[in-house]
Specification:
This protein is α/β, with parallel strands linked by helices. The protein is 36% helix and 29% strand. The radius of gyration is 20 Å and the shape is globular. The chain starts with a strand and ends with a strand.
């Protein structure tokens, strides 16, 4: 089994790389990123990959180069920004290679869903949105929905805390560009069967997550689940759906301040005769921040609450995954809980265990029990509780 990881020099890719390197069925890994990232790729290949990885340069904006890099792979794990998803999908479709990405942040995912039949006709699969959210929560939703004859509501919440004493001004939990989008772009909720657009960071809800995450206020933010879940489960009668996120408090307050100052803006400002895009400046400045040297101590709870009926009885089903730093790899919860599911999905695709064909969200093509089994092997257990209406 050969897997290519695009964006392999990124932080979220580390979980995928380590998962693939420690999976015996994976015989060859290609770590691909920009030319200037080659030293990072070579070090990761040497340190982590048990002599089965090669480091290569790739230019995703050069279709021929990209196709040459991914050629012959059983699957491509796209760990780049969502803005490149469609370009990578084009190359994979041309080469007949299975594909998985980390999500399209609603608007890109909406375009990706339109490619379903092209991929089905080719006999291959593109998994649209894999990680913790989207990803794990989508497969949780599928598991619960399959227990029901009809489904009324799906509520997804993601709570994150960072308990480490950080020695960096801004401890960024995942891609800053995505986080800025979540703070400035409108989110979407499904209410009584109608899709509604709501302001970012609206709908605040106090949620009691299990410790160590504890009680947090979660807000509506734009996410891929908001377009895929309603589309997938409409035939089951789904009428209500939302996704809410609670970020580490210190980070959330700092980023909100920066965004309120205008540093999430995309319109160029003239500064001393030069055009400067505030968002680009903030992202570039973040790259110069010192990396935390403290031991990872971030934690996450992924929760999916599903309400529906089975044999005319109302049921409430809750699935949860409590994620912690992964000590065997000295890896924080962020890259572990996001990257590992990408590696697992790539393995299931390349090994023929994900049999649905087409461009599909995770809830439509990942086999839940097998997916959860492999998650458990990487210390991400999923629990299920069922509550019956006793009124």
């Amino acid at each position: 089994m050969k897997i290519t990881v695009l964006g392999a020099a990124g932080r979220m890719a580390t979980g995928a790389i380590r998962d693939l390197a420690n999976a015996p069925e994976v015989k060859e890994i290609v770590l691909a990123d920009l030319e200037q990232c080659k030293p990072v790729l070579e070090k990761r290949a040497a340190d982590w990959c048990n002599n089965k990885a090669t480091a290569v340069s790739v230019n995703i904006n050069d279709p021929e180069n990209l196709r040459a890099v991914i050629r012959g792979s059983g699957a491509v794990a796209n760990c780049t920004t969502h803005h490149l998803n469609l370009k990578v999908m084009d190359a994979c479709l041309s080469e007949g290679v299975n594909y998985v990405d980390m999500g399209g942040l609603f608007h890109v995912a909406k375009k990706q869903l339109l490619l379903k039949e092209q991929w089905k006709d080719k006999g291959i699969t593109a998994v649209l949105g894999m990680g913790s959210a989207p990803g794990i929560v989508n497969v949780m939703s599928r598991y619960a929905v399959d227990m029901l004859d009809s489904v009324e509501s799906i509520y997804i919440s993601d709570g994150i805390v960072n308990l480490a004493k950080l020695d960096t001004p801004l401890a960024i939990p995942y891609a800053l560009g995505t986080l800025i989008d979540e703070f400035v772009m409108n989110a979407f909720v499904l209410e009584n069967g109608e899709m509604k657009e709501v302001p970012p960071l609206s709908g605040g809800e106090v949620i009691d997550f299990p410790e160590p995450v504890g009680t947090q206020t979660a807000y509506c933010t734009i996410h891929s689940e908001e377009i895929t879940i309603p589309n997938t489960f409409k035939p089951k009668g789904l009428k209500n759906m939302s996704f809410k996120l609670a970020l580490p408090g210190d980070f959330e307050n700092k980023l909100k301040f920066l965004v309120d100052m205008g540093l999430g803006g995309t319109e160029a400002l003239n500064v001393n005769g030069k055009d400067v895009v505030p968002r680009d400046l903030l992202i570039e400045l973040s790259k110069k921040l010192p990396m935390p040297t403290t031991k990872p101590d971030d934690h996450k709870v992924l929760r999916v609450d599903v309400i529906g009926e089975k044999n005319e009885e109302k049921l409430e089903i809750r699935l949860e995954a409590i994620c912690h730093p992964y000590e065997p790899w000295n890896m924080g919860t962020g890259p572990h809980s996001v990257g590992v599911p990408v590696g697992i999905a790539a393995r299931l695709l390349a090994g023929g265990e994900a049999t649905e064909k087409g461009a599909l969200p995770a809830e439509a093509c990942m086999p839940p029990k097998r997916f959860f089994e492999l998650l458990g092997e990487r210390n991400i257990p999923v629990s299920v509780t069922v509550k019956r209406d006793l009124s």
